[in-house]
Specification:
Elements: H1 3-109
């Protein structure tokens, strides 16, 4: 095969490629546009799901805060009960010691 034949063969190949390129480029552009549309759709779907999850988390946090406030109230009530019981026990102890002092004082008065 001569150089001229080779050049003609290469020229034919280049022309064939040049004829096919516009179709392929158009096909690729169409695929890219479809992929971009799909990507945007997925992006919007993901944003919606994230927003839903955020709302769920907010609700859960609000619920937990409510439970914490309830527990704080219960703890405060229990604390008051314990204080009252301690005061009652202290007052009883003071009364017992007072009674004991009276008995000892009376015993001291006996001959």
């Amino acid at each position: 095969m001569t150089t001229e034949e080779r050049l003609l063969k290469l020229e034919g190949m280049v022309e064939a490629v040049v004829r096919l390129l516009p179709e392929r480029i158009a096909g690729l552009e169409a695929r890219m546009a479809g992929l971009e549309t799909r990507l945007e759709s997925l992006r919007q779907e993901l944003k919606g799901e994230i927003q839903g999850l955020r709302e769920e988390v907010r609700q859960e946090v609000a619920s937990l805060r409510g439970e914490m406030n309830t527990l704080r109230g219960e703890m405060a009530a229990l604390r008051q009960e314990v204080k009252a019981e301690i005061n009652t026990a202290f007052n009883r102890t003071v009364l017992i010691f007072t009674a004991l002092a009276v008995v000892l004082g009376l015993l001291d008065l006996l001959p």
